[in-house]
Specification:
Rossmann fold, alpha/beta, 10-stranded mixed beta sheet, single chain, 36% helix, 18 strands
Length: 543
């Protein structure tokens, strides 16, 4: 190639006008673009035609299935259920004569205008009455090619047949353990359901101060009526007060007998539910005609089997104020501002995790289910250092039960037998400040503990609705004669569950290999320390 040409397919010995070369290149480019566009248009037409044909085929198949009374969709041949096992409940009708025989279950005490516009009561039929064998599947997830059995829960709701005669029902309600948003709501809804839905003629006793209130003369029971509970759902806490411990089965049963109690409603956590089941068993052993129902209550959301406990949503919402305060403190206090928020979570980090996800402002979330690694490649202290250097501040959320591998397991217990937890919040405040100081810088660390503030607020709208469903369905269950059960939301459906099965796997914990923890890592960008064994954490940890 002469003259050191650049090999572009043009003979450099031939001199062509520059305009001719440019025109040829432009023509070639235009031809290429036109051909490409035509090809893309052809593909687009083919895609549209294929989509239209597929839609037509799907619609035709759906119509054929509907004609055969089959659901729409594609039937999966390799997704099956290998048996459904119903968790049955004890029913007093097996052991005691029915007091409600022949009484139709219809809603009582609905307000109507009588003659001369005077107030009166009316009755109305339920839209849906639930059969005894109606159930909700526990495990609704299926994998192709894998068959496995599933348990099922009895569906909650009003039954066609009553076991108790509303005219003779006396009931008692007790709240036990720590406070939780929605306690007053549940008390209110049980009371209103008994009087307004079933029209009972007896008394509803509110047991004051937990189990001890059954027999302590200093805290006598109070009478609950629709009028006395009318506005209590606007208040936090419980009008019945609460306490831990005080369980004395003989004294409790003496009260039930003395007041001719037919229904007992126990609101509390897994320990309280074990006490409720003990009352149920002893009543059966001694021939007492009493239905015992539980309503799961736990601020930590750690009662297993149910979707979530009432009040949890409110607590997560209330925790946002503390996290926002920590962010303001951290971002406004120099140098190296860090805000720490300690939230409740004795053995489960659900509140801390969901508050972190709901906030979007948290840089480090520490929970009991995942060990805390302070230093090293995946340590939380280097992570905080980096976050502070990136944006000038950081926010930490820690569950109260986190860090046992650092501080050791406490041997002290409270009245309910729960371990007294070490002070992880103060510990983290100290080690963070020390870590920065060792690197020649000061850190301004602010520590906020809103633990009791977030559980003492009134229930929000979501929990108010949930509490209404819990209270009403607990009453529906006892009026049908069920006993030794608890009520809860399972797969977004209200169910009745045997208390022994409910507490068998409680307290539950968050899965550190699950999606919630995955989302925590994505939001906070913190390193994942769950892959480290507890023993390995003893290396390179601070005293």
């Amino acid at each position: 190639m002469a003259g050191g040409g650049i090999g572009i397919g043009i003979d450099t010995r031939t001199t062509l006008p520059l305009a001719v070369v440019a025109t040829a290149a432009a023509t070639a480019a235009a031809t290429y673009l036109l051909t490409k566009r035509q090809f893309e248009n052809k593909l687009a037409v083919e895609r549209r035609e294929k989509y239209a044909a597929d839609r037509k085929e799907h619609i035709q198949e759906d119509e054929e299935r509907k004609m055969k009374s089959l659901p729409s969709g594609t039937k999966l041949s390799d997704v099956e259920t290998d048996g459904v096992y119903l968790w049955e409940l004890e029913n007093l009708g097996k052991y005691f004569p029915s007091e409600g025989k022949g009484i139709e279950n219809i809603m009582s005490a609905l307000s109507v205008a009588g003659k001369d516009d005077k107030h009166g009561d009316s009755r109305a039929r339920y839209n849906v009455l639930v059969g005894d064998q109606e159930c909700i599947l526990a495990n609704i997830r299926r994998k192709p090619g894998k068959t496995e059995p599933t348990v099922a829960y009895i569906r909650a709701g009003p039954r066609p047949v009553l076991h108790f005669n509303p005219a003779t029902v006396n009931a008692a309600i007790v709240t036990c353990g720590g406070l939780c948003p929605g306690l007053n709501n549940v008390v209110r809804e049980i009371t209103r359901a008994l009087y307004h839905l079933y029209g009972i003629k007896g008394n509803v006793y509110g047991i004051v101060g937990g189990f001890k209130g059954f027999y302590d003369p200093k805290t006598p029971p109070i009478l609950l009526t629709p009028e006395s509970v009318e506005n209590i759902h606007h208040e936090g806490g419980t009008i019945l007060s609460s306490s831990r411990g005080g369980f004395d089965i003989d004294k409790i049963l003496n009260f039930l007998k003395s007041k001719n109690i037919r229904q007992l409603y126990v609101i509390g956590g897994d320990g309280t539910h074990r006490g409720a089941f003990k009352i149920h068993e002893t009543c059966m052993e001694r021939g007492l005609h009493v239905a015992v129902a539980g309503v799961p209550k736990t601020i930590d959301n750690d009662v297993d089997r149910i979707d979530q406990s009432f009040g949890f949503n409110t607590c997560v919402e209330a925790a946002q104020m503390a996290i926002r305060a920590a962010k303001v403190e951290a971002s406004c206090n120099l140098p190296n501002g860090i805000g720490i928020v300690k939230l409740m979570g004795r053995s489960s980090g659900f509140i801390a995790a969901h508050a972190t996800l709901g906030s979007g402002d948290v840089d480090l979330c520490l929970v009991p289910e995942v060990p805390i690694l302070l230093e090293g490649e995946t340590g939380c202290l280097p992570h905080l250092w980096n976050r502070v250097k990136e944006k000038g501040y950081a926010v930490v959320v820690v569950a109260e039960g986190a860090g046992e591998e650092l501080l050791g397991e406490s041997t002290e217990v409270d009245a309910s037998g729960n371990k007294r937890l070490p002070q992880i919040g103060e510990y983290m405040k100290k080690v963070i400040a020390d870590y920065f100081k060792e690197r020649g810088e000061d850190a301004t660390v602010k520590y906020i503990d809103p633990s009791y503030m977030i559980r003492s607020v009134p229930a929000n709208a979501n929990d108010t609705l949930y509490c209404m469903q819990l209270g009403q369905n607990a009453v529906h269950g006892t009026m049908a004669g069920y006993t030794g059960f608890s009520v809860g939301l399972c797969n977004n459906k209200m169910c009745l569950l045997p208390i022994p099965e409910l507490v068998a796997t409680s307290p539950r914990q968050m899965d550190p290999k699950g999606r919630t923890w995955e989302r925590i890592l994505a939001v906070t960008r913190q390193p994942n320390s769950r892959t480290f064994s507890r023993c390995s954490l003893l290396v390179n940890q601070r005293p």
